[in-house]
Amino acid sequence: MVSKADLIAYQSHRGYPSVSILAPTHRNGPAKKQDRVKVGNLHRAALDRLHKEFGKREVAPIAAKLKKLIAGIDWSATRDGLAVFASASVGSAITLPFRVKARVQIDETFATRDLVYSINRARPYRILTLGHVTRLFDASIAAAEEIRSKPFPFRHRGPGGGARLPGGLGVNSSASRDKAHRTFYKAVDDAVRALQGDSPLPLVLIGAERNLAFYQEVTGQRRHIVGMIAGNHEATGARDLGAMAWPVFEAGATSQRTAALVRLDEAVGKNRSASGIVRVWNASADRKIATLLVERNFKYPANVDATGTRLTAYTGVGPEAMDDAVDEIIERVMAAGGEVFFYEPGDLGLHRGIAAVLRR
Predict the structure, then answer these.
(1) What is the predicted pLDDT for the residue at 251?
(2) How far is 258 from 108, CA to CA, in rounded Å?
(3) With contact defined as beta carbons under 8 Å apart, do 333 and 357 qualify?
(4) What DSSP string describes 130-167?
(5) How many angstroms separate the CA atoms of 46 and 36, rounded?
(6) Residues 138, 116 within the same domain
(7) In terms of pTM, does the model score above 0.70?
(8) What CATH number is attached to the domain comprising 311?
(9) How many H helices and E strands in the chain?
(10) Torsion, Cα of 306, 310, 312, 318 (10° steps)
(11) How far is CA 316 from CA 49, 284, 302, 319, 324, in A?
């Protein structure tokens, strides 16, 4: 999974030429056998573009880096997409949990839009199953992988868990059990908080209603909980848990995207918005964008003038030629602390594919 720290590092990179290869891949099935061939074709297309513009000797270090990165891909472990980044100083191959459009980009920066999409639209989250054995999973879309580093899976060894409830005259065994449950879930929450660290991920809770209630009483993660599913799933496998949790998590993400559309509508009425690539580009250059809304597949190749402010006709040659000005806008907005939301093609038709809510 791509972290925010990784994304910031890729977005901060500057250097021409920087090569980005994006390719759809497959987790399994017959089509998976063709992934290596299709990525190989994109690799050759990237080399052809480099050699036409620079000559083989000048770009030999980048060509060697690309060759090594692609040779090192574990094709048995690919997911739904692949991103390969290479420049004179940087090289990385990243698997993605969603499909991407096959393309090659050669620019001053890497094509990071799909990484932004991964974090914002299909960003990682965690699943916490509550029970006598409490488990924690890293998840992205419907794929989940159990975290097995101590103290997880976390076992309840107190009264009502691994130990017998106290008995005898005047002993309230139910109160003793409830107290032990709260103590257990507080320890679980401490472990979750330690794992979350400074970059907490959203949480989906799964457990019996009683356990969900106990955990909510003691948790310090309340603002990160995006949804809950009632039911005993202590023994449910990662695949089935991911299938259950993803619609719950996606509902929260959909709500955020809908709220951004509402803010855009309000901003239009107050003359605090920008629509269309030129106005949004100019607003991003002035660091005026609080929220960027863009259709996922909207792309705008262009050249930029020497001042870095005006878009001109795309030539496809040199550092002033951007294969996609939208990627540069996304990077500017995020660098300035703004939000980015992605939509399906046609959702922003009135705004010609891209729009922004401007800062006050």
Answers:
(1) 85
(2) 33
(3) no
(4) ESSEEEEEEEETTEEEE--STTPSEE--SBTTTBPPP-
(5) 15
(6) no
(7) no
(8) 3.30.1330.30
(9) 9, 17
(10) 30
(11) 10, 22, 8, 9, 10
28: DSSP letter: S
Task: Find, among 349, 332, 347, 282, the residue nearest to 311 by Cα.
Answer: 282
List the structure tokens of 276.
């269309």
Task: Report pLDDT for 146.
Answer: 94
The type of residue at 43 is H
Q: How many CA atoms lie within 13 A of 259 on its CB side?
A: 9
Which residues are within 8 A (CB) of 126 and not within 5 positions of it... i.e. 6 or more apart? 136, 137, 138, 139, 192, 201, 202, 203, 204
So what's the pLDDT on residue 100? 87
Per-run averaged pLDDT (10 residues), the chain, 360 residues: 75 91 90 93 96 91 96 91 93 87 91 77 84 92 88 82 56 72 93 87 93 94 90 93 92 84 96 96 94 92 84 86 89 86 92 96
Provide the token pair at 191.
């472990």
142/144 Cα distance (integer angstroms): 6
Structural domain ending residue among the three candidates 97, 123, 149: 123
Q: Please tell me the predicted confidence (pLDDT) of residue 160.
A: 60
CA angle 183, 224, 192 (to 5 degrees): 40
Residues 200, 202, 205, 210, CA torsion sign: positive
pLDDT value of position 171: 44
Q: Is residue 262 assigned to a domain?
A: no
Tokens of 235: 């023994």
Rounded Cα gap, residues 43 and 17, in angstroms: 15
**Angstrom distance (rounded) from CA 25 to CA 234:** 33
Structural domain boundaries enclosing 348: 270-360
Answer yes or no: are the C-beta atoms of 159 and 180 closer than 8 Å. Answer: yes
Q: Which long-range contacts (CB under 8 A, 24 or more apart) does 268-274 make?
A: 272/357, 272/358, 272/360, 273/355, 273/356, 273/357, 273/358, 274/355, 274/356, 274/358
- Token pair, residue 341, equals 């939301």
The Cβ of residue 311 has, within 10 Å, a number of other Cβ atoms equal to: 17
One-letter amino acid at 104 equals V
- Please report whether residue 211 resides in a domain: yes
> What does the angle CA 92 – CA 117 – CA 113 come to, to the nearest 5 degrees?
60
